[in-house]
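Page 47, continued from p. 46.
Same chain as before, 186 aa.
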Amino acid sequence: MKARGTYHSPLRASQAAATRERIVAACVAVMRRGADLTYASVAAEAGVQERTVYRHFPKKEDLEAALWDWIVRRLTHTDFGVRDEEQLVAAMRESFAGFDAGASLIQAMLHSPQGLDVRRSQQPARRAMFEACVDSAVPGLPPQVRDRAAAVLQVLYSASSAGCACRTAARPLTITRHHTASGGEP
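Result:
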């Protein structure tokens, strides 16, 4: 007798992925309106049954995690592979444009426990990116000085992304260069 294989339908998998994206897009729309993110509100916005939302996201934390992932991928354009000043400035400009385009969603992310968890999970990669950029801009800094310069750069980036009027991304590295070139510490 022939053993039964696992049934796999590319069409069903594609439809499930499309439904999931539709649900996440509905989360975005609900949040943009400032409404509560509930299974009922998301289902109504997505045009699906509430049980369909539950099938894709059994826990509300799963639904919120998918929303925050969407925000990070689509609005913040997070690229922690940046390794020099030029790449950092370009990445920051792209991020700030996304922040401006989705200001209400970014604010929700900044002020929610789930958004805080997302930002915390990105912290090691973000820190490594800023350290690499400082190393590229000012090679040979003592580790303690490099760590402080990277921390300052990260604070400036974070303040700018949160809506600070200071949006000149190239300035932190230029200041670091100038200061270290004159013999002082950043």
